[in-house]
């Protein structure tokens, strides 16, 4: 595995629309120095934005993934290893996806493994292990698509708690300019703190040299669906403050909500 070298594009000035809307600035802490491996898999492909059906092949893949993660968790250099199962594709995709339909691969990942490790050596050991190869081989046979993303944390509200059940978000971002993506995420993240009570978030930046379809992936958690979904559906400022600023900066979010598998 190549080293965790990262880059962001030279920043273009952030374009702000609807400047009359004011939400408090997001409160951030220092990013984690740990390394991450995100394995996102599209197994079942629902025709509606709710994942109500779990195929036999997906159950088998989840079981294998959970056994692997339990084994990884016993290693002292593994901080966390968790499997997630998609429940819902919420509002928030935005119109840029339709305009860029030939350039953007929509995120419809219904199984995700997120592994957090102490350092690059640990990350390399995982990617060279037999268990990792078994997961990848099985996914390539059973899934429509797989995205393996070594990454690091570049912005953080607080760490995401994987020990308690809740509603977990992986928000897969497409952007022409990674730096602008990060800047507009930070500009709009205060809305989520103020309007949904969000108190955690880990923004992952994919490793340069890997085939990541997305500029960044934001991961966070709420206790209950009622804390997030009504705000996305009924608060007009979600569109005028969050989505409109995404679009003005040529950024597209592709959110998927999950539960612990």
Main sheet strand line-up: 1-3-2-8-5-7-6-4
**What distance separates the N and C termini?**
28 Å
Helix fraction, binned, reads: 25-40%
How would the global form be characterised? globular
> Percent of residues in beta strands?
25-35%
Mean pLDDT across every amino acid position: 93
Q: In CATH terms, what is the fold-level topology?
A: Alpha-Beta Plaits
The secondary-structure element order is EHEHEHHEEHEEHHE
The CATH class is identified as Alpha Beta
Named CATH architecture = 2-Layer Sandwich
What would you report as the Rg, rounded to the nearest angstrom? 18 Å
In total, the number of strands is 8
Largest sheet: 8 strands, antiparallel, barrel
The assigned structural class equals: alpha+beta
How many domain modules? Answer: 1
Low-confidence stretches: 1-11
Number of helices: 7
């Amino acid at each position: 595995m190549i080293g965790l070298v990262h880059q962001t594009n030279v920043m273009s000035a952030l374009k702000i629309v609807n400047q009359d809307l004011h939400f408090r600035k997001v409160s951030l802490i220092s990013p984690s120095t740990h390394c991450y491996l995100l394995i996102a898999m599209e197994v079942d492909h629902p025709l509606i934005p709710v994942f109500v059906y779990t195929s036999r092949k997906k159950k088998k893949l989840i079981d294998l993934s959970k056994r692997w993660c339990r084994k990884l968790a016993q290693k002292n250099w593994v901080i966390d290893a968790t499997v997630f199962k998609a429940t819902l594709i919420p509002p928030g995709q935005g119109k840029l996806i339709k305009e860029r339909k030939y350039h953007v691969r929509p995120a419809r990942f219904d199984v995700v493994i997120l592994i957090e490790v102490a350092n690059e050596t640990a990350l390399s050991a995982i990617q060279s292990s037999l268990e990792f190869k078994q997961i990848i081989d099985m996914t390539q046979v059973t899934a429509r698509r797989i995205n393996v993303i070594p990454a690091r944390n570049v912005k953080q509200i607080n760490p995401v708690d994987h020990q308690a059940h809740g509603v977990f978000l992986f928000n897969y971002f497409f952007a022409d300019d990674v730096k602008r993506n990060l800047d507009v995420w930070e500009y709009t993240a205060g809305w989520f703190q103020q309007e949904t009570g969000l108190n955690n978030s880990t923004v992952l930046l994919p490793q340069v040299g890997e085939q990541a379809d997305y500029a960044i992936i934001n991961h966070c958690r709420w206790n209950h669906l009622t804390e997030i979904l009504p705000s996305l559906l009924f608060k007009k400022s979600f569109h005028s403050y969050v989505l409109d600023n995404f679009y003005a900066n040529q950024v597209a979010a592709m959110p998927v909500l999950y539960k612990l598998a």
